[in-house]
Amino acid sequence: MKALIKVGYACNEHCTFCHTLDVRHIDDTSESVHAKIRRARQLGHSMVVFSGGEPTIRPELPGWATHVASLGLDLGFVTNGRRFAYPEFVEAMLARRLRYVYLSFHGGSPRVHNSLVRADAFAETLQAIRNLHGRVPVLTVNCVVTSTNIHKLRELVDLLLPLPQLTLKFSMTAPKGGGDRLFEHVVPRVTDCAAAVADAIRHGTERRGDAPGPRFGHDGIPLCLLPGMEDLYDDLRTNDFRVMSEVGEPDFFPVDDVIKVQPEGRCGGCALRGPCPGLFRGYVERFPGDEAALEARTGHRGNSYNLTPTRDIPRPPGAPCPVKTDGTTSYDRGRTLFLRLRDRMRLFETRTRDFADVELQATKEQHGQLYVDVSSKLAPDDFPRDLRKLRILDECVRCEERPRCTGCWAPLPHDVFTPDDARVHELLRSLDGDVLDVGAGEGSYLATLAPRVQQGAARYTALEPDEARARLLQQRHPWARFVVAPAEEASLSPASLDHVLLLRSYNHLAAPRLALPRLVDALRPGGTLLLVDNVAFGLVRGREHAGRAERGPGQLEHHRNDGAEEAHRATLGLPLRLVERRDVGPTTSNQWLLRYERA
User: Fold this and answer.
1) Closest Cα partner for 11 from 75, 114, 80, 60?
2) Is residue 52, in this structure, part of any structural domain at all?
3) I need a surface site. Which of 86, 354, 368, 584 has the fewest CB within 10 A?
4) Of the candidates 156, 270, 165, 262, which has an alpha carbon nearest to the alpha carbon of residue 212?
């Protein structure tokens, strides 16, 4: 786990896109950097990475690096690399546990690179790459794609192709500092950037063939613009950075993507929303029309994620909160939580990339859908028995640090699933007439429906897209009729049904806005549409349990993790009257309900 420390914003280059253009005169004190090194060790991080500006120009660097090594931590740099052109400096840093270098190099020729960094730096930077190649476990060469070098990316690929033990990464220019002030001259259109990066990666992959060669990566480009290269996405989190600290900040803060946005209208239902960087906020402000280039990808998503333990903080009964005393800002509120144990607080965190930060924040802080998995199953299938809902402690709710703290949680003593599901069973026991069940799934509700059908009060048909599952359910429930077809394609007669049920199957629909009008059209006036489904949830598990589950054979079946609000919006404009709505919240299970009547 890496902690990033920015030691100052001064630099021996003058990049046209420099992030810190307006603060280059500001440096942190040596004492502050030493304190942050100690703090990184205290927080349980295994590597300190120095950044800036340019960290290697600070005369205090040897002392900082020695301090890092003395604490048993590894050392890393985000650097322009020029000082690594000197072998004695490389050896000195390797002796201090140098394990990671992220080095900037923006062109395959002196003319291109030097014009971007506005310094005679090409030869030193290339020599640094050669000096470090094969000497550090992780060497990334980052090329910022600008309007100057966008058509010269192949040159850089060709230059570095003989060096297989590095990653060549292409990053979209961020509209920050120089990238903001010189936006019109420096920042390319995102579609042009994506096309150039894709071309450079394809070129390098073809030239490399089966021979060893550099790996490739990209950042700052929406994944939908790089089809087939989604797995090459490379950012702070993919490199195991957890926290960072700017100059003058008293403590660490979680790494985040606050300067990037995913426009809801284009990205809301995208299956790649979790790992995708979206667009830079400043870019959208300049080119709002470019959102139209984004296209939500259909596909399956997970509906849960694991939180695993990282470390314990002692807290005997009656003792004050140690996190409040020590500092709350170092913990990511969406990705971490403390679990209260008898004499300690245990920190859990998730590294998932299946969910965007805003989704994780909503799951934890808005919906309160966190559970301890007390089973040993790869996937819980009996929620009332397998899961214990977590609730934040009352002392945390009252604490003035709550808006900045991840909070401490404890399991509720009662089952939250059965009461919420009781209303669904109550509604099913009252159905009569022609009933269509869309997506019977595991047949969880068929035992409740069976008496109505067997008494002649209801006639039951299920639409099930999985033929093998439909065949199995037919054997178990001979009183039911099963039709193999997806809801978006099933042949339904208008006004032929009294009730349509989507019981935990709404989020399995590939295209709700296509399926719902067909289903509503098949309802008779006064008929009902019942939607029941689940939002995403977090599972607190041990490392071994989580590892087995993530390596297990489970298949993703959800296309989205919509709640009642999102599902209700999908029904707007249809001839329906909402008669009942139950939302998910901190005191409920993760199941929501919407019931409509056909107008």
Assistant:
1) 80
2) yes
3) 86
4) 165
Q: Structure tokens of 452?
A: 């109505």
Find the CATH number of the domain harbouring 440: 3.40.50.150
pLDDT of residue 266: 87
Pairing of strands 576-582, 591-598: antiparallel
Structure tokens at 585: 């919240």
- Amino acid 165 reads Q
* Residue 320 DSSP symbol: P
In this structure, the answer to whether residues 213 and 309 fall within a common structural domain is no
Q: Give tens-digit pLDDT for 473-487.
A: 999 999 999 999 999
Is the domain of 434 the same as that of 354? Answer: no
Q: Which residues of the chain have a pLDDT value below 70?
A: none
**What is d(CA 57, CA 65) in angstroms, rounded to the nearest whole number?**
13
Q: Is residue 472 part of a domain?
A: yes
Six-digit token string for 497: 């049904």
Q: Which two tokens stand for residue 387?
A: 């899961």
> Tens digits of per-residue pLDDT, 179-226?
999 999 999 999 999 999 999 999 999 999 888 989 999 999 999 999
Q: What is the predicted pLDDT for the residue at 594? A: 98
Q: Are 362 and 333 in contact (CB under 8 A)?
A: no
For 118-169, the three-class secondary structure string (H helix, E strand, C coil) is CCCCHHHHHHHHHHHCCCCCEEEEEEEECCCCCCCHHHHHHHHCCCCCCEEE
Whether the link from the prior residue into 53 is cis, omega within 30° of 0, is yes
Output the six-digit token pair for 563: 């709640």
Tell me: do 470 and 557 sit in the same domain.
yes
Of 379, 411, 443, the last residue of a domain is: 411
Q: Which residue type does 190 have? A: V
Q: For position 259, what pLDDT does the model report? A: 76
Judge contact between 99 and 138, C-beta under 8 A: yes
Q: Which residues contact 289 (CB under 8 A, 6 or more apart)?
A: none
pTM of the model: 0.90
Tell whether 238 and 378 lie within a shared domain.
no
Domain end residue (candidates: 391, 411, 431): 411
Q: What's residue 258's pLDDT?
A: 72
Q: Which amino acid is at 47?
A: M
Q: Name 177's Cβ contacts closer than 8 Å, sequence gap at least 6.
A: 17, 18, 19, 20, 21, 22
Q: Based on the fold, state whether residues 126 and 259 are members of the same structural domain.
A: yes
Neighbouring residues of 31: CB distance < 8 A, sequence distance ≥ 6: none
Query: Does 288 share its domain with 365?
Result: no
**Residue 454: predicted pLDDT:** 93
Strands 344-349 and 304-314: antiparallel
Total domains, the chain = 3
Would residue 298 count as lying in a domain? Answer: no
Same domain, 344 and 382: yes
Q: Which residues span the domain enclosing 509?
A: 417-598
Task: Examine the domain organization and report whether 388 and 429 are in the same domain.
Answer: no
pLDDT of residue 504: 94
Closest CA to 341 of 318, 320, 324, 316: 316
Query: Token match 């004492």: residue?
Result: 31
Q: How far is 108 from 200, CA to CA, in rounded Å?
A: 12
Q: What is the CATH number of the domain that holds 247?
A: 3.20.20.70
Length reported for the chain: 599
